[in-house]
Design goal:
The chain is an alpha+beta fold. It has a single domain, classed as Aminopeptidase (3-Layer(aba) Sandwich). Helices cover 30% and strands 35% of the residues. A 7-stranded mixed sheet has the order 1-2-3-4-5-7-6, with helices on both faces. A hairpin with a 5-residue loop joins strand 3 and strand 4. Helix 4 packs across helix 5.
């Protein structure tokens, strides 16, 4: 597994993977599936407002995407985490590895203290993923995000980055 910063030249591979996984992603997330939507999304990365990371296999297969957005410095040192994986790699622990490495990067390289992830209650795989990594449920937000044509409730999960270990527990 390789985790690295997303670059603009990743557009074709990410768009292709997202198109192939539309049914898998709905209604949880709506990632870019064409060049125009990729460019709109990537503008936030290029402007430094979002840290986006691409998880891939050595052969180039896209495992998933991590987005650390709304980064706040000062006394807060926090951000939001959005992520999505591809169906072909589900259930193999690869997104756990990607997220663990991404969280460590945000602590060590970016200097953050806390990361928050908002997850729809029915997204059981995503909830299990953050629980395995040590996130704690902090609350519930009704009609929190507009996704796939509807306002969706979300659970708020967060982790203090000091608690993230580079040691990967046995499965």
């Amino acid at each position: 597994m390789i985790l690295r910063p997303m670059v603009e030249s990743d557009a074709a591979a990410v768009i292709e993977a997202n198109r192939a996984n539309r049914a898998y992603h709905a209604p949880w997330v709506q990632p870019p599936v064409d060049r125009a939507s990729f460019d709109r999304w990537f503008a936030s990365v290029a402007a430094g407002r979002t840290v986006s990371m691409l998880g891939s296999m050595p052969d180039g297969g896209v495992i998933g995407v991590l987005n650390f957005s709304e980064i706040v410095r000062g006394n807060f040192l926090s951000c939001y985490l959005g992520y999505y994986g591809m169906a072909a790699f589900a259930g193999r622990g690869l997104m756990s590895l990607c997220l663990r490495a991404g969280l460590i990067h945000m602590r060590e390289a970016v200097g953050l203290h806390r990361v928050e992830a908002n997850i729809q209650p029915g997204n059981l795989r995503s909830r299990a993923l953050v629980e395995r990594l040590g996130f704690r449920r902090e609350g519930y937000s009704p009609a929190y995000l507009y996704i796939d044509g509807a306002w969706r409730d979300h659970e708020r999960w967060a982790i203090l980055l000091e608690a993230v270990s580079a040691v990967v527990p046995a499965r």
